[in-house]
Fold:
Amino acid sequence: LRLRRTLKTGSEEFLNRYTRHFLAKTTHVPVVQYALDPETLRCRFVSDRGCTVYPDRPWACRLYPLDLAEGGPERYRIMVNPDRCLGLLEANRMTVGEWLEHQGIAPYAAMEQAYYAVMPAGFKRGQWLDPGIGKLLFLAYDLDRVALLLQDRTVRRLYDLNEAQVAQLAGDDEALLRFAFRYIRSQLEQLLGDPS
Structure:
């Protein structure tokens, strides 16, 4: 959300211009990856002076050089050796908790939890999903499409949204994303039964 706003682009344009997005072949879970510059194979937002979008960098960049480890959501591992990340060679040491706090991970983790709360009952990462469900989950990445849903009177009626609420959602990306989660969850309930 933040990066899209920083670049002053819509979600569809952002997804098409700066990412690779697809449904994973085996699980059909939506995957969105930043597309590297094809000539340099580097992030398009990194210049000789560093990250050009640093205040609004995404969750993966904030987490780096950590990665999620198997065994639960609070487990991490270092994903690179010190030669590839100069920050690992610095004398200043931090615990994982200190690093996460310093990088401002909390709001990103909260949104990730909200995303996984819409998943079908018993869903585990790496588990296979129907491709239609994968496409439905992809709505969480394309807020332009979610905003279009709000123009539909049937959607407004089903979610008991008045004009003021629709306007509030249209002006607040985080609120619109939370609505997208609500919409996805209700669609999953209709397709699969209550996912909780």
